């Protein structure tokens, strides 16, 4: 909400117009019900009712107002982190208007003032989440919450911010959601929406349905014993406990009537009768189905693979067990994958020794290219990680049933008290083989731009799908990354509600090792050249991945927020040509990002 006089600018937390419209009052003083058709039958549902007050601050003591700058202190396209005494806000000027929102990304707390401002939204410098500067709403992921929005007011050419102290302290806002009506009236073996899988895609789908006002039954089922958690943290911080990395607390699921069935495995799906059959014999009817089962880690096929203390890190219990066994012991990691490298980095200071076995010549060669891979490898070697490249495991030897040695095909024998396997994964879609749902030769579920399968009412999302990527001219790709799973879930939910929404997000990922992060945006599969700017030896660089004349992806270390800037350029439909990468890099270093407002190539 923007108030502008000739003299002053203030900021105050308000309900965004998009959400306020959901609270339009009916003549009886209740929220006007929306209607959703279930099997042709109209059902009414309500958003959780919150009366609209003329003053959005119900407790005057919770409000703070402060002058933060002069109106001429900010030019168009500039952002400033401002202090209100009891907390900070992000002040933004764009197209002559002032806006103010939370200053930290709700995902991992990145300072948004160091992010990228473009066409009404700010993109996080660390992991690429995007927020609308007018509403604070999250528009791209990762993360679940939006930013608080504050009132801006101008008086006597000074900019003021008026805000809730609580909002300044939490720096996050959970969008308003519906609840399920008369949940007790439902048959336990029947649900409107069934979500198989409780990762990012499944949770975002459920939350989006509730945010859009859907108040019928939603059931999520998972083979895991825990409620949805931040799985990428498992390999980056192996001693994390489930409650520390939970995406939402238990109370959240109770409040918004999102049912989660843990330790429940779907064995088959009858698409004709719309029934999911569980391994224990339980059956559940559904109206709409989301399949978000993710991947299953590949196991070793060598002799001795059944010995104790060999792990695929899939759960918090796996990660915690590895840390306990590895401390001051000998660790062998098989596979220089993201998981394998992150685990090696985490254990390097804790274990007596860390050895990493990989079939390729350098880590990450297919993903980041040989030069970046060698720079990363050098960093690991300087941190006591020993590499055994271009070889495989031929045998795992045991003593009294527990791992003792890892034998390589090269003939080398490695002492090992614990082994972590990170040699890739396959889609967890075996239960769908006879279902009639279109599965490709590698086991991936094939979907369209709306995350729909070939079966009406059946959607799929996350690591197990092949979908059309707008960035690569709608080529069907698999992008098994956390950010993309969030967006898949959102798109699927919107299309369950017949919104006709197509996916167009730019892939964005990151990895963290020894306190350093590599950020990556785009889709570099099949790149034919890598152009490096910066210094690989100093681990301060930008790598542009090209295919023919076009930059298709970018990676960086210690050059924030260039990856977010590239993501924003690509998101705008613009093309960075190979010959222009130097200009782009120089413009970034000088702070001139006119690329973001231009058109065409």
TrEMBL record:
Its main location: mitochondrion. GO terms for molecular function: 2 iron, 2 sulfur cluster binding; metal ion binding; oxidoreductase activity, acting on NAD(P)H. Residues 66-161 form the Rieske domain. GO terms for cellular component: mitochondrion. It comes from the Eukaryota. Coiled coil: none annotated. GO terms for biological process: execution phase of apoptosis. It is found in: Mitochondrion. Induces apoptosis through a caspase dependent pathway. Reduces mitochondrial membrane potential. Belongs to the FAD-dependent oxidoreductase family. This is Apoptosis-inducing factor 3. It comes from Cepphus grylle (Black guillemot).
């Amino acid at each position: 909400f923007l108030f502008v006089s000739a003299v002053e600018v203030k900021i105050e937390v308000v309900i965004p117009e998009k959400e306020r419209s959901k609270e339009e009052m009916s003549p009886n003083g209740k929220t006007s019900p929306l209607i959703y058709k279930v099997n042709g039958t109209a059902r009414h549902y309500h958003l959780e009712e919150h009366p609209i007050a003329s003053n959005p601050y119900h407790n005057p003591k919770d409000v703070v107002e402060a002058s933060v700058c002069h109106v001429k202190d900010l030019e168009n396209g500039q952002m400033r982190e401002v202090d209100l005494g009891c907390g900070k806000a992000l002040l933004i000027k764009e197209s002559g208007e002032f806006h103010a929102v939370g200053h930290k990304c709700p995902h991992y707390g990145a300072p948004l003032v160091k992010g990228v401002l473009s066409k009404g939204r700010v993109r996080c410098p660390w992991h690429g989440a995007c927020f609308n500067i007018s509403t604070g709403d999250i528009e791209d992921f990762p993360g679940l919450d939006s930013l608080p929005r504050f009132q801006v007011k101008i008086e006597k050419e000074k900019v003021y911010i008026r805000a809730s102290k609580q909002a300044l302290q939490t720096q996050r806002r959970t969008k308003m959601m519906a609840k399920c009506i008369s949940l007790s009236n439902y048959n336990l073996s029947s649900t409107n929406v069934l979500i198989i899988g409780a990762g990012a895609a499944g949770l975002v789908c459920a939350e989006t349905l509730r945010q859009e006002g859907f108040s019928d039954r939603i059931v999520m089922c998972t083979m895991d014993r825990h409620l949805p958690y931040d799985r990428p943290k498992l390999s980056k911080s192996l001693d994390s406990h489930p409650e520390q990395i939970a995406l939402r607390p238990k109370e959240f699921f109770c409040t918004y009537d999102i049912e989660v069935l843990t330790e429940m495995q779907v064995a088959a799906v009858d698409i004709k009768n719309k029934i999911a059959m569980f391994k224990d014999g339980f059956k559940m009817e559904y109206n709409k189905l989301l399949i978000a089962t993710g991947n299953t880690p590949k196991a070793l096929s060598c002799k001795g693979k059944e010995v104790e203390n060999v792990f695929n890190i899939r759960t918090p219990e796996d990660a915690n067990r590895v840390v306990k066994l590895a401390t001051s012991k000998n660790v062998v990691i098989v596979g220089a994958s993201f998981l394998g490298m992150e685990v090696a980095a985490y254990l390097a200071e804790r274990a007596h020794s860390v050895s990493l076995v990989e079939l390729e010549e350098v880590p990450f060669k297919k993903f980041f290219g040989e030069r970046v891979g060698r720079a990363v490898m050098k960093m690991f070697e300087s941190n006591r990680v020993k590499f055994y490249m271009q070889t495989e495991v031929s045998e795992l030897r045991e003593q009294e049933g527990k791992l003792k040695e890892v034998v390589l095909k090269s003939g080398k024998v490695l002492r090992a008290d614990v082994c972590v396997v990170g040699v890739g994964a396959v889609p967890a879609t075996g239960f769908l083989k006879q279902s009639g749902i279109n599965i490709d030769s590698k086991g991936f579920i094939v979907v369209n731009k709306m995350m729909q399968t070939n079966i009406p009412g059946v959607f799929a999302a996350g690591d197990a799908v092949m979908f059309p990527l707008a960035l690569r001219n709608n080529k069907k790709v698999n992008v098994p990354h956390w950010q993309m799973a969030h967006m898949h879930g959102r798109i699927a939910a919107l299309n369950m509600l017949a919104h006709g929404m197509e996916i167009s997000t730019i892939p964005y990922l990151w990895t963290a090792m020894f306190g350093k992060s590599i950020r990556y945006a785009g889709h570099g599969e099949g790149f034919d050249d890598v152009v490096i700017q910066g210094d690989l030896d100093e681990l301060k660089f930008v790598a542009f991945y090209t295919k023919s004349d076009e930059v298709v992806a970018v990676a960086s270390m210690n050059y924030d927020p260039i990856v977010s800037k590239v993501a924003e350029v690509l998101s705008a439909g613009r093309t960075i040509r190979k010959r222009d990468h130097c200009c782009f890099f120089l413009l970034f270093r000088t702070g001139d990002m006119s690329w973001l407002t231009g058109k065409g190539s």
